[in-house]
Design a protein that fits this description.
Elements: E1 2-6, E2 9-13, H1 15-27, E3 32-38, E4 45-47, E5 57-62, E6 65-75, H2 80-99, E7 102-114
Parallel strand pairs: 6-7
Antiparallel strand pairs: 1-2, 3-4, 3-6, 5-6
Amino acid sequence: MLGFSNDNGHISFSEEVIAKIVGLSTMECYGVVGMVSKSATEGLWELMRIENLSKGVKVNFKNNELYINLYVMVEYGTKISVIANNIIQKVRYNVENYTGLKVSTITVNVQAVRV
């Protein structure tokens, strides 16, 4: 469980909740086709449906800071660096705004391009 304490008590978040916020925020960005997850059995990257977006997100919590890795598929013909920067800004803003947790690092891994 991730969380923090203040004068009023303790607030905890499951990793699943943080991953959902990250996945939904990412899907709002232009050029993103979807979140992807690696199929362990076949070694292939598969596109996640809306209810499984969190499978394309890895969240680590150390020293009261979040470290986020996300795996995406982008649209062919879009500038990947611009998409990645938009994702980073949107995810950082939404996670910090919704939860109050500090985001230290966001790593965007582009795993596929849809033609």
